[in-house]
Amino acid sequence: MMDEGFELVVKNPGIPYYNPMIQKAIEKEIPVITEVELAYQISEAPLIGITGTNGKTTTTTLIFEMLEAGNKHPLIAGNIGTVASGVAQEATAENTIVIELSSFQLMGIDQFKPGISIITNLYDAHLDYHGTRTEYIGAKARITQNQTEEDFLIINADQDECMAIARNSRAQIVPFSTRKVLENGAYVKDGWVCFYGEQIIETKDIVLPGKHNLENILSAVAATLLSGADKEAIRKVLTTFAGVRHRLQYVATIDERKFYNDSKATNILATENALAAFDAPIVLLAGGLDRGNSFDELVPSLKNVKTLITFGETAEKVGQAGHDAGIKTILRADNVEKAVPVAFEHSEAGDVILLSPACASWDQYKTFEVRGDMFIEAVHKLK
């Protein structure tokens, strides 16, 4: 097939480079790219590119919403679900394309160069594809490889591996931190989100919960202000944005109980982050597909959980972790829908009722989205 005069191969990001057809193209020195490279080559609009291990979708959505609130005509694309090349084809110089980028997509770029790039954070992920952590981080670093002194790299100053990437970038570095004051970046000081010494919004007015979301907010604020939007647009979004669907999404308040849908939490780390987002007592709904692991790692994060409702194949294992954490009330439900009224019955005013399963959904639900939708539907039935 490679003898038919092809000049270019556009590879689906999920197809590995050891695929025979891809190997044949490489042998014949036929360029192999992913479609985000194609999007860059045809786009008239400037790009804001977002990558990292966690927080990409939330950060991408925040930037899009902030730019829209500031009348900057943004378009959203990439790994978030809209094909980048299709969006780029319709974009004009009046638009800004906000594009979420996976490591798989970034491995297939050549000239791709966002005017503003963001690396949210770096943790172990997709090592079955990349082989090593070094290869994975190298793929993420490609987001800035073609940037110049006219461009910006917004990066997590609280991670040494991120800052190592920054040292090798030619872009202007804009760091963000939740731990320290950075007069040349985005940070939190005295209860305010700040950017280059200027107060933007008080943290108490932000409706999106959690320290990990504060990281996302800092990088989004930096990108939005660098793109020319104003503080009012940022404040409008941060005081109303309830979160990306199924990612620590605020659903409703019923009888002074706040319900959050974090069905996207398909592993222990994601659930640990969700639990750390709240100071209020938590009624946790957790369980799902059994991949053979224990939940011992989750135990230290359960200290604020007053009641645990388990379901799915891992119900017993998750319940054991709750027992080890000293949770007094541990109950089992057939599924998420039946867990919601049980959780409500065992809650009090001021509690948070949180779906954060720490497991994939495939034992009972086709996708985590379906599981989250069932949770939302069950919450609305309580009304």
What structural category do the secondary elements indicate? alpha/beta
The CATH superfamily of the largest domain is: Mur-like, catalytic domain
The name CATH uses for the topology of the largest domain is UDP-N-acetylmuramoyl-L-alanine:D-glutamate ligase
Shape call: globular
Question: Terminal Cα separation, in Å?
Answer: 60 Å
Low-confidence parts, pLDDT < 50 over ≥5 residues?
Answer: none
Number of discrete domains: 2
Please provide a written account of the structure.
This protein has 383 residues and is an alpha/beta fold. It folds into 2 domains: 34-239, 3-Layer(aba) Sandwich (UDP-N-acetylmuramoyl-L-alanine:D-glutamate ligase); 249-381, Mur ligase, C-terminal domain (Protein-Tyrosine Phosphatase, Chain A), CATH 3.90.190.20. Helix content is 34%, strand content 20%. A 9-stranded mixed β-sheet has the order 4-5-3-6-7-8-9-10-11, with helices on both faces. A 6-stranded mixed β-sheet has the order 12-13-17-14-15-16, sandwiched between helices. A two-stranded parallel sheet has the order 1-2. The longest helix has 16 residues, at 211-226. The protein starts with 8 loop residues before the first strand and ends with a helix. 50% of the residues are buried. The mean pLDDT is 93.
